[in-house]
Amino acid sequence: MTARFEPPVVQDNPTGWGPNTIPSQYKDMPYQPFSKADRIGKVADWTGNTYQDRRHTNKYASQFQGGQQYSYYHDEDESSFQLVDTSRTPKPMYGRRGNFRGNFRGRFVGRWNSAKPMPATQLQTLTKAQKIKERNRLMQAQKWQKQNAGRVNYQRQMPIKSRESSVTVKSDWIVIEEMDFPRLGKLTLPTVGDPTDLIQAGSLEYYDKQYEKVNVKAEKPLQRIDRIFHTVTTTDDPIIRKLVKAEPEANVFVTDSILSTLMTCTRSVYSWDIVVDKIGGKIFFDKRENTEFDLLTVSETSSEPPQDEGNSTNSPRNLALEATFINHNFSQQVLKSGEERYKFPEPNPFHDPDEEGEVCSVAYRYRKWNLGNNLQLVCRSEVDACQTGPGSEPQLLNIKALNEWDSRYSGGIDWRQKLDQQKGAVLANELKSNNSKLGKWTVQAILAGVDYIKFGYVTRYNVKDSGRHVILGMQHFKPTDFAQQINLSMENAWGIVRCILDIIMKLKDGKYLIVKDPNKPILRLYDIPDNTFDSEDSEESSDDDGDMDAQLRV
After folding, report:
1. Disulfide: which of 202, 358, 395, 454 matches 476 by Cβ 3.0-4.6 Å?
2. Strand locations in 166-311 (E)
3. How far apart are CA 297 and CA 295, in angstroms?
4. In the chain, how long is the greatest CA-to-CA distance?
C-alpha cells in the first residue's frame, strides 16, 4: 500500500474574512482583544491601594482600548457592618514621643520667628543696654537654627546605590554552594591548637618610640617614603612551592590577607573574590592578578558609606587608594631607618638585587595549623616591625593607620577636637565604620603571632586635599585583647575556614571561585573552567597592576 495524503478541509467564506461557523463551546462567549505584552493583574487586592501612585495607574491596562467585558467592579455596602470593640485605643509610647517632638519643633519655629531683627526705626529708640540684649537674642536664635538644621540633616539618609560585583560571573559557571552569613556566624572550631613555625624570612626595622608623644597639638606631617611593597599571591611564592614538597602532610596553602578575608567574611559589605585551585588533593587559595584585593576599604560598614562616583576625591576607589597610600608610608615613617635591622634566618624571598629602590621593613612567618579532619593548613603571615621589650627581648609589631577623610560623612566626630580627650570614642566610631578592615588587621596580627598591633591616627591636612596628611596620635593593643573588644571570635573564624575546606575537599580536582555577593550577605562557590583568568587576562592584569602601583606612588 502506498501512503496517501488527505488535504485538510478549508472553509471558504465568500462574504467576509474568517470561519463560516463558530464552535459550540465558544458560542455566545464575550471576546475582548488582548496582547501578549499585557500585564496580568492581581488575583485579589485586599488593600485598595494598588493604584494610589499615579505612575502605576495604567500598569495593567490593555493596549486595546476596547470593552471591559472581563472587568469586575465591587460596590461597597457597609450598612450591615458594625464595630464590636468600642473602647478607646491607647496611643503607643512612640506616638506620644512623636507629639512631644512636634511640640518641641514648634517651639523652635517660634524661636526662629523671633530671630528676625527689629526694624532700624525701632533700634534707634532703644538704649545701649537694650541694643546689647537684642543682639544677644539674635545670636542665640541663630545658634538654635544651626543646631536644629544640623540635627535634621544628620537624620536624613541617602539611598544606598546598588554595588557591582568584583568579578563578572560567566554563564558557564556553576554554583556549587551558597553560604549565608547568619549560618556562617554560628560556626565554631575550638580544637585548633598553637601553630608550628616552619620558616621565618626577611628583616625588620625598630619602632621609633618618639611617635608615642605625638598628639593633636604636636602633630607630625606624613612623609612620602618610596619603598617597595610586595603583594605576592600564594602560588607565586617560592617558599610555599618548597613547602609543598617538604611538608607532604600539608594540604592547604594560603596567605594571611586571603585567610583573614575568609575568616572575617561575615563583616564584609563590598564584593571580593578568591580563586581556589585543587590539585592532587591539595588546595591553594589565590587572588586574581587584575583585582583590587589588596586595597584597603574606607567606611565600608558605615550606615552612610561613600557613594561619590568617577574622579571624585571621596569616591570608594579613590578613598581606598588614599588609605593604602597612607598605610604604606605611615608603617615605614615610624621606624628607625638607617640603623641595623633585626634579621630572620632566611632572606626576603621576593627581593631582587637588580630591583631599584629599597625594600620595606617586612618579615614573613610560614606557620602550620592542624584543623582536624586531615586538614593541615600552611599560611604565610607578615610582620611589619619590632621593638625592644623587657630583658632586651625583641617584640614583633604590626603597624596600621586609621585615616580620617571627612568627619561630616564618617560619623560626625572631628579627630582634632576629640582624639586627645576621647580616644575611645574615636576608636569606637572607626570600629563602626570600618568593622571589616579592623577585623582583618586583628586576624592577621593573631596569625602572625605578633606581640602588639599599633594604630596610628592620620587625617587630611585639608579636608578637600587627599594628597597631604598629618599624624595626630598613636595607640597600641595586644591582638587577643583587641579581638575581645571588637567581638572577634577566632573559634568562629576557624569554623568558617573549616566549613569551606570541608566543602572543597569533597569536590574533584579543578578550579573554583569564592565570590562575596555585592548586595547580599552571601558567599557563593562557583565551579569555573580551568583556563579562566589565563592568557589575555594575565596580560591585562599586569597593565592594571602597573597603573595601580603608579597611583599609589603619586
Report:
1. 454
2. 174-180, 196-204, 220-221, 227-228, 252-255, 273-279, 282-286
3. 6
4. 128
Beta bridge partners of residue 375, listed in sequence order: 372
Domains in the chain: boundaries:
174-547
Q: Encode pLDDT of 207-229 as tens digits.
A: 999 999 999 999 999 999 889 89
Amino acid at 311: N
The predicted pLDDT at position 146 comes to 73
Q: What is the Cα–Cα distance from 151 to 155, expressed in whole angstroms? A: 6
Q: Hey, how many other C-beta atoms are within 10 angstroms of the C-beta on 295?
A: 18
CA–CA separation, 354 vs 312, rounded Å?
38
Please calculate the CA angle 401-407-553 and round it to the nearest 5 degrees. Answer: 40
Q: Are 181 and 265 in contact (CB under 8 A)?
A: yes
Q: For residues 513 and 532, give the distance between their C-alpha atoms in angstroms, rounded to a whole number.
A: 10
Prediction pTM value: 0.70
Q: What are the pLDDT digits (tens) for 136-157?
A: 888 888 878 777 765 555 445 5
Kindly state the helix (H) or strand (E) to which residue 491 belongs, with its residue range.
helix 490-505
pLDDT digits (tens, 9 = 90+) for 379-437: 999 999 999 988 888 999 999 999 998 888 877 889 999 898 889 999 999 999 999 99
Residue 252's closest CA among 504, 439, 510?
Answer: 504
Cα–Cα distance for residue pair 252/278, rounded to 1 Å: 9
Q: Which residues pair with 177 in a beta bridge?
A: 525
In this structure, what DSSP letter does residue 451 have? Answer: S
CA 461, 466, 467, 469 torsion-angle sign: positive
Cα 535 from Cα 532, distance rounded (Å):
9
Q: Kindly give the residue spans of alpha helices, DSSP state H, lying in 92-172.
A: 93-113, 120-125, 128-155
CB atoms within 10 A of CB 427: 20
Q: For residue 108, name the pLDDT band (cuts at 50, 70, 90).
A: very low
